[in-house]
Amino acid sequence: MNYLTAGESHGPQLTGIIEGIPAGIQINVDGINQMLAARQGGYGRGNRQKIEHDVVEIVGGVRHGKTLGSPIALVVKNRDHAHWSDIMNPTSPETPENTLRQVNRPRPGHADLVGGMKYGHHDLRNVLERSSARETAIRVAIGAICKQLLDQLDIQIVGHVDQVGSVAANSHRNLDVEKIEKAITQNDLRIIDQDQVQPIHDLIDQTKRDGNTLGGVVRVVATNVPAGLGSYISWDTKLDAKMAAAVMGVNAIKGVEIGDGFDAAASLGSDVMDEIDWQADDGFGRLTDHLGGFEGGMTNGMPMVIKAAMKPIPTLYKALQSVDIATKETMKANVERSDTTAIVPASIVVESVVAIELVKAITDTFDGSNLQRLQTQISEYRKEFKNF
Ligand SMILES: Cc1cc2nc3c(=O)[nH]c(=O)nc-3n(C[C@H](O)[C@H](O)[C@H](O)COP(=O)(O)O)c2cc1C
Ligand SMILES: C=C(O[C@@H]1CC(C(=O)O)=C[C@@H](OP(=O)(O)O)[C@H]1O)C(=O)O
What we know:
Blueprint: E1 2-6, E2 13-19, H1 29-40, H2 48-51, E3 56-60, E4 62-63, E5 66-67, E6 72-77, H3 96-100, H4 112-119, H5 125-131, H6 136-152, E7 156-164, E8 167-168, H7 177-184, H8 197-209, E9 216-223, H9 239-248, E10 253-258, H10 262-265, H11 269-272, E11 276-279, E12 283-286, E13 294-295, E14 298-299, E15 304-310, E16 321-323, E17 330-332, H12 343-365, H13 371-386
Bound molecules: flavin mononucleotide and the ligand C=C(O[C@@H]1CC(C(=O)O)=C[C@@H](OP(=O)(O)O)[C@H]1O)C(=O)O.
């Protein structure tokens, strides 16, 4: 399975093409749109989300609601394009008015400066339009389709917010997907600890007033993942490594942890290794899950636990120092409409890319041409592992 996305933040639309999704999956368009809406939401978002109303259009690879096994083409329109139709017109020539909207004061922490140098763009809008995390909307649409396939394979997955700025919001380390889902739908932060909602709202409000921004930590938990996805055979077959790459590929993610991650480094071996047991009904298992469901680059059947650290949003309303790329004068960085924090959407995006990597691993391991055959193969494989 593979995918590609195209589109700029204020261009006409975002486009995604997925290749390798099995035939025969009933696609729930409302389910995709619910994930798109969740990605738009969350406390701390900027005004752009008041303009956008993300809905998916399926324009290939699905017939009468079912996947055909051919490439699936998806579109999410940018409503804001209506206000940028001259500036972001894909084909009409540049006008003097367009030049007025050029960006020449690169924002520290964004792709602006190096992107301009690398591609030879002297209008940094040519960089920021694509480096904008607007693109994550189409990645979430692709992730939502992957989630619907995982659902058919009885694999559950949820992303939530674990920390905002320095405030932690998950004191119980719960790994039950249903319980996590229930807790996070009760607030607009997708956090588990309800008593942290007010302090985090206050933190975001104050940070916004200060013209500053926040990052945080998100966590994804996946359960009932078949053991043995990925391999220890070669470095580039390790699924934990592929997961880390996909998660790092989300805008502003600066760190990835599997299981106890960095905490494991400071622990003793006896506190980290998950002891092995065997039950007649279930076969082999582990008594704990410090290693987040991975051993030797392979899933081990325990819940998959992946955390990601997001840096604070780079565009600050109290703008940081920059230099005008034309005049070389020291100036404040460019400011456009921006989020104070995007940790809530990041939890949906990270969940989506983890779902995508899981589907890739599954379709690499089994025959992914057709849902029914895939289901049969996975069910036989699960039985074989149980009887080992
Ligand atoms: C959902 C989401 C929303 C974001 N919103 C903004 C934003 O409003 N303003 C901004 O400057 N950066 C925003 N970012 C972060 C930038 O896209 C990101 O920092 C930038 O592309 C540079 O990439 P890097 O941080 O991975 O180096 C957002 C990221 C995500 C995942
Ligand atoms: C548009 C979205 O997020 C954007 C991500 C983003 C950035 O620099 O990453 C900057 C802001 O938008 P613009 O591209 O208008 O400057 C955010 O609003 C979205 O998530 O739908």
